[in-house]
Amino acid sequence: MNATTNQATSIKLVLLGESAVGKSSIVLRFVSNDFAENKEPTIGAAFLTQRVTLPDDTIIKFEIWDTAGQERFASLAPMYYRNAQAAVVVYDLTSPQSFLKARHWVKLLREQSGNNIIIALVANKLDLCEEQAQPETEQEETEPRGNVRKVAKEEGQKLADDEGLMFFETSAKTGEGINNVFLSIAEKIPLKKKGNEQESATFNGNGQSENSTSSNGRIDLNARNGSSEACGC
Predict the structure, then answer these.
(1) Which Pfam families does this one have (predicted)?
(2) Residues in a beta bridge with 199
């Protein structure tokens, strides 16, 4: 079937995690292939969309809710992950506290959605480990250096194995592993063929999926309910 005539299956996906772990940067990299330093924290949540095309030409349209990580917004989270078919739980591999928070979110998701929700556990900021591994001067090579990684890969993998999650280590800054997170989720979506759950997709000239957001890739929720604005880490 010609890709331009395919329909996209819409999937609600929520991002959860402590503040400053890079949730918004992950979404920005996925949606716009961009990265911005020193982003402002998300307030409430931000909404974005992006399409991916699977090898069999199936098109998945992700409707992404990027939630705030600050504790004062924690009570709003159930509103965003309710009825979500997929979730990305993010932690910062340099922050043990953020890993503990990720465990908390996984527990809540399992209590609320059981095994009906696809969950990807993502350890972000892999670039910090790679930067540390390459000293810039001879002096740095001889001086003892603290290990920037505080959460071992094995710890994340064990949590994923115990809870039946997918596990990834990523860098929103370099883009490493980001597309693989969303493509892997898309491949696990149990597709439904009901026409009322699908909508038309658009493609660019080379057959790659196009972002269907507004001009800046985001929707300002302040215009509707005052609960959100453009997101940050």
Answers:
(1) Ras
(2) 8
SS3 sequence of 6-42: CEEEEEEEEEEECCCCCHHHHHHHHHHCCCCCCCCCC
> 8-133+143-202 in CATH: which number?
3.40.50.300
User: Which residues on neighbouring strands pair with residue 91, listed in sequence order?
Assistant: 123
Q: How many residues does the chain have?
A: 233
DSSP single-letter state for residue 92:
E
Which stretch of 7-21, 33-47, 121-135 has the lowest confidence by average pLDDT? 33-47
Sort strands 86-92 and 7-17 into parallel, antiparallel or unpaired. Answer: parallel
**Cβ neighbours of 23 (radius 10 Å):** 30
Q: Where in the chain are all domains bearing CATH 3.40.50.300?
A: 8-133+143-202
161-186 per-position pLDDT tens digit: 999 999 999 999 999 999 999 999 99
